[in-house]
Amino acid sequence: MRLLVVGGSGQLGHAVCRRAVAAGVAVTATYHSGAVGVPGVEAYRLDVTDRAAVRRLVTRVRPDAVVSTPYRYADWTVTADGAAHVALASAEVGARLVHLSSDALHAGRPEPYADDDPPTPVFPYGAAKAAAETAVRAADPAAVLVRTSLILGDADSPQIRLCRDALAGAFPLFTDEIRCPVDVGDLAGAVLELTGTDHAGPLNVAGPQAVSRAELGLLVARRYGLDTAGLTTTTSAAVPSRPTVVRLDSTRAATDLRTRLRAVEDVLAG
């Protein structure tokens, strides 16, 4: 199999590249800034907002499968338009598409969200991710849309670094903003596995344990032996238009995939 990872310099894209190479897969990856940095990966710089450039690269590589991860938090053109460009180009060459989506497209509610619950975005990034899903499904109805949550990596990964900064007193963490964190390695394994399946449409792929951002901060403190004296907390009332309780029911992914999706306490157990 020839795999194309769009966004190979990002946290998840990098993990997918490493796992795929280790499994003997021929991997091509793209980056916009930074570098892919995985031995054995053929890397190209790509601006996903340039539809013609995306089409040229995908046509040149002619992958069997595409993992599409590009996003920029405050940039609609990257998150929504870029995803559409990748989906259109992938469909043209008949590649299997695994598109990375997010729990950010949900507004929040007490009940867990099922795989096929429709988006209800309440802030711009969530709206961009919802628009990306719509575009991907229109371009390729057979694509799988992986809805995931907070991605946990090593000590310098974005979510862990955010918690470390909060523990140092940089800003408060929410006590009522609930998510289902997932380990980047677990997610990468699930994404690679999905390239070889016929799953289509939305699929929740997140950890089975829901925690608040404040609880996550305390787990990070325990994992890295950090002092919690500097941690302050707040509620979502202080910042309007943020999703609050977003629990993803990942039962189907946990049942159908061989990859184990671990609880956050297990991930941060050391």
Description:
The structure is a single chain. The protein is of the alpha/beta class. Helices cover 37% and strands 17% of the residues. The chain contains nine helices and 13 strands. Strands 3-2-1-4-5-6-11 form a seven-stranded parallel sheet, with helices on both faces. The protein has a two-stranded parallel ribbon with strand order 7-10. Strand 4 (65-68), helix 3 and strand 5 form a beta-alpha-beta unit. Helix 2 packs parallel to helix 3 (76-93), helix 3 (76-93) runs parallel beside helix 4 (124-139) and helix 5 (158-167) packs across helix 7 (213-224). It is globular, with a radius of gyration of 18 Å. 49% of the residues are buried.
Write the layout of secondary structure elements.
Blueprint: E1 2-6, H1 11-22, E2 26-31, E3 42-45, H2 51-61, E4 65-68, H3 76-93, E5 96-102, H4 124-139, E6 144-148, E7 151-152, H5 158-167, E8 173-174, E9 178-179, E10 182-183, H6 184-194, E11 201-204, E12 211-212, H7 213-224, E13 233-234, H8 251-256, H9 264-267
Parallel strand pairs: 1-2, 1-4, 2-3, 4-5, 5-6, 6-11, 7-10, 8-13
Antiparallel strand pairs: 9-12
